[in-house]
Amino acid sequence: MSAMAAWSRVRAIAAKDLVAERRAKANVVAVTAFGALTLLVFGFAVGPDTATLRATAAGILWLAVLFSGVLVFHRSYQLELEGGALETLLLYPGERWEIFAGKLLANLCVILLVEVVVIPLSLVLYSVAVPDTWPALLSVVLFGTIGFVTLGTFYAAMASRSRSRDVLLPLLLFPMLVPVLLAASEGSAALLVGDPMGDAGTWLRLLVVFDVIFVLASLFVFEHIIEA
Amino acid sequence: MSVPTATSAPVRPATSPPASGAAVSLRGITRRFGHKWALRGIELDVALGDLVVIQGHNGGGKSTLLRVIATAVHPTAGTGHVFGLDLRRDAAAIRESAALLGSNNGLYEDLSARENLQFAARMLGVADARTAIAAALEHVGLTSESDERVRFYSSGMQRRLALARLMLREPRLLLLDEPFNALDADGAELVNALIASTRGRGGAVLIVLHDDARLTQRPTASYTMTQGRLT
What we know:
heterodimer, B: alpha/beta, four-stranded antiparallel β-sheet, 6 helices
């Protein structure tokens, strides 16, 4: 019964965040446009050489997702800070990890939505063909996104009560993201440009391990972060 | 009506257990934010059925005291119990029976009034949420505007909606921080009715006020808070 109540609260928080995000259409559209623009700008910076574009496509794709994600994570807690809703949220019955899980779920949905636009666009802009191993590529994208969103949701909570949160979040998040970013971009690159050494499987397994560690650690520590 | 003259809180040793039947029992509670002490050695007992009023100047620590009792803020030192439950160890259990109406309404502006209440009902585990929400909206007079986004509500309507959220359940301890703010005469009646119904169920009410003129019930105790001290 208690687990069902907890799951109900997790879903309520996620649904509430998604409805609010849907209402503020400009945010989702702006974040997606920002991701697309990042791809475009990096494409110009890399230059017109097709081989170079293909080689850098995976890394740039993940950077575009990362930059877009920071905006999503900011917004996630901004919702709670407007009108003092965070305190009301903290005073509902239930455990703190449920709040984190709900926000994680909502952010995951939004980032996956952004990726639905950004990934095909990156394939077009960087002249990359869809590989035969696309299911494996989707797995790398999924597990990379889970790790990224977990850390983003966690550090956004940490930064949310600071007046300098806009600067603080990237400063906290980006260094911690290095393992996930490395594994996700290397795994994606291996699958996009061919994987003769079979590296993608190793990177994927690494991503799964990162995800398990990050999700469990965040659920456990979130209480101390949000109450600080 | 006038509030009785401020009285000193009964003082007991910090190690004494909470009084039997006590809704709130605080012993030597302090809270510091950075270098500023918001609460200094608060001693307070609130019994079931009590209506306790706390007044004082801005920045005196009144809201912080309510937030500590509601478990929104942990005390820096001291011990506190709500219905015999420890403020630190049993915070989750305390939240089951205590409800706070803060100075902010804690509403989501991009959601409608109904959606705000639906969210609250799910978080609170209200059994028959649809009926409870309809009744709460009706009670605060917001039924016809219930599908409008809260962003477009006046401050008085937002306060009414925050009251409706409190009505979704029947807390045994009601903590009200300037509940009459932004409310018209009808709205003030809603607050007084909420206080009466909570006490009628045997619950306790702790209320922070600048001006007690709109409070129609006679408090069982009244305190003044100055620079984090309760007198």
